[in-house]
TrEMBL record:
The keyword Coiled coil does not apply. PROSITE patterns: OMPR_PHOB, RESPONSE_REGULATORY. Residues 137-239 form the OmpR/PhoB-type domain. Residues 4-118 form the Response regulatory domain. This is Response regulator transcription factor. It comes from Nocardia acididurans. Residues 137-239 bind DNA. Keywords: DNA-binding, Phosphoprotein, Transcription, Transcription regulation, Two-component regulatory system. The keyword rRNA-binding does not apply. The modification 4-aspartylphosphate is found at D54.
Amino acid sequence: MSANLMIVEDDDRVRAALRLAMEDEGYDVAEAEEAEVALRHLRDHGAPDVVIIDLMLGGMDGFTCIREIRRDHDVPIIVVSARDDTHDVVAALEAGADDFVTKPFEVKEITARMRAVRRRMQFAVEAAADGEPELGTTVLDEHPDVPLILAPESGTVHRGDEEIHLTLTEYRLLCELAGSPGRVFSRATLLERVWDQGFFGDERIVDVHIRRLRTKIERDPSDPRVVVTVRGLGYRLDLQR
């Protein structure tokens, strides 16, 4: 599957290394040294299939750029940054990133994560095209006026007549939980199944994406009833009847 990639990185050497590695993986690569340049490119040419972005950029920082991208696009975003403390990792994920890689890094780690992203992208395309989703339409919350409905065949989630816009990762996470209502999924299991990279993923990623998912699908995100926490074990999806 041919895919387009944008690299937002102000270090020429890092950007060149990433470009060469991603071109070897079959991507068509666009580059930007600054966040403002990247955002103009998205406005003029539309969103790529994947974005790789540094946090420390001249001018607008990476956190702000991610939030700006997320306002209009659900494209997968991978952060590559030397800022590796817990606050920065969580802040990047909360801003809308899907994954976080710490500098210095091995190019093979980036290419492995990109292959995982491509598998998720291919899964979404094939599920919509072949009419054989991994689970059927599911009513997650039978609210009498605005039911919450997951429809994998069309790749959508609706509350009443309004479509809820989820990122690819949020959507895959919801589908995984909804595939087995009432089952408790550990963070490690969700990381391996949704991100396809349990061997080097960070479980904090799961917690942050669960929080973001709740803000979109729960009636009251501060008191979640659909995606619930099972203390010490993980997460469970409860159908609301």
